[in-house]
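Box S1 | Example of a co-folding query
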Amino acid sequence: GPIKNNERRAGILRAAAVLAKGELEHESSGHDWWHIHRVTKLAKTIAAEEGADLFVCELAALLHDLADEKLVDDHEAGMKRTESWMLENGASAEEASRVLEIISTMSFRGGSGSPMTTLEGRVVQDADRLDAIGAIGIARTFVYSGKKGRPMHDPNIPVRHKMTPEEYRSGNDTAINHFHEKLLKLQDLMNTDAGRRIAEERHSFMLEFLERFEREWNGM
Ligand code: ADP
Ligand code: NI
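Box S1 (continued) | Returned holo structure for adenosine-5'-diphosphate
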């Protein structure tokens, strides 16, 4: 009955949180467990507002980085493992395939520009992008840059809105430039109304931050 089904789903979500926590506890490239935790909360908020399937959104958010190309050597194997995990932990074949479809589109580098085909996919992608902007986005950017040994800013390097893969590899990047090449563009990539509303607020906070940063840099 419906109560049993809710219990089954709650059990899967609890187990998925334990799995993600264990796997990403020592991750330091910006996809640690707390990123998953924040994205999951955002996904639930947006899903409720958009009328999306809450269970699919929450499970996809919890598992979305486990097969990420940046974190695992073999994306395909990561996907297979995630699928088996879901089936072994009580997800139906249909639920598992809906979640898998979302995280494969999200985590695949080449797929970062490809549109999400389902409402649930649009919700989780918005949640993931929102965690890259606003106050948290600012903090993650400086942590990432610091870890790469890059400067926070260099006024002698002109602002680049697009960087070639060669420029990326050369490491000739700054934290401040990352706002221009990526973070300030995310607002226009939001899929849902709820996501857009949250993005607008976070976007204007980043603009305010950049203005203050510039003023303080110049001793004002
Ligand atoms: P995602 O999987 O969310 O696309 P990334 O691996 O691109 O994440 O980035 C993880 C975090 O590090 C994000 O907050 C992102 O903004 C930040 N980041 C990624 N690339 C850079 C960079 N070149 N400079 C500064 N921060 C970066
Ligand atoms: Ni993520």
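The chain is about 65% helix and 0% strand. The domain at 1-113 is CATH 1.10.472.50 (Cyclin A; domain 1).
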